[in-house]
């Protein structure tokens, strides 16, 4: 417990969030950007499965009718929704809890043929574990809980968990719900099986996670793995994908470099690469550069463009990696395609 509390303490008043007395979680603006990136990745669903946008403002049955009428899709398919909540307390391991004045529940409901639903659940829980591992600094911390089944409803459930110090934190819940239990919520929704005219009520496999808890988990994973100086959040989740800094001993050259930085920022943003232009904060010394790089590392920016005097003459600049701290030289004409390639790979 002590080690886990120390880890939580390291998150207190970080640049991503603040943990107030009593366990109240508050996301900073950059923390909300991280949460939004996580939410977008969740909403994409699993590869090879059709997932459609639903609305929490209408019933599950109405969502189902809309999807079937619009897309004429076959089983299995999923509908993803999100729902805001206020003033909730969420368990954070065995001995801690997290209080949120506002938060978001993310849910994806897959509709599955009852004859294959158990196999589908085993497949999906493995995929969800891999999903978490893919974005982690320490993939070995994730596990799947033991299967539980409610004696009355026959609902089966498992949780994807992460180990932090001596605690196991549940990140998301998977529930396989018999169609008979969900019939009323689905407004007696049924589908034809194959080429026959026989109709069935599908089972529902529901994945549910709290977006704010998921955000905290990503930060805990980064802090426990590498500390708070260089926050190694996965490049696809990082709030800012690229930073830009300038260094010059010549005041005139520095102004021209800042103009170049503004141009490159616009180029990258048009390519949907979130960019933090730090050129106006740069001084003329290596000490100032190092200070700025430490700041970018602390907010998990995976790549930084280093603009120097020669960049104005030959169009070459250095691309620094947060994780290796190594630089590679590329040409301005390589943007934005080269950066897009390494970010999405």
From TrEMBL:
Domain of life from the UniProt record: Eukaryota
A cellular component term, taken from the record's GO annotations: mitochondrion
UniProt GO BP: mitochondrial DNA replication
InterPro entries, alphabetized: aa-tRNA-synth_II/BPL/LPL, Anticodon-bd, Anticodon-bd_dom_sf, Gly-tRNA_synthase/POLG2
Gene field: 5574716
Anticodon-binding domain boundaries: 241-341
PANTHER family: DNA POLYMERASE SUBUNIT GAMMA-2, MITOCHONDRIAL, GLYCYL-TRNA SYNTHETASE/DNA POLYMERASE SUBUNIT GAMMA-2
Name this protein carries in UniProt: Anticodon-binding domain-containing protein
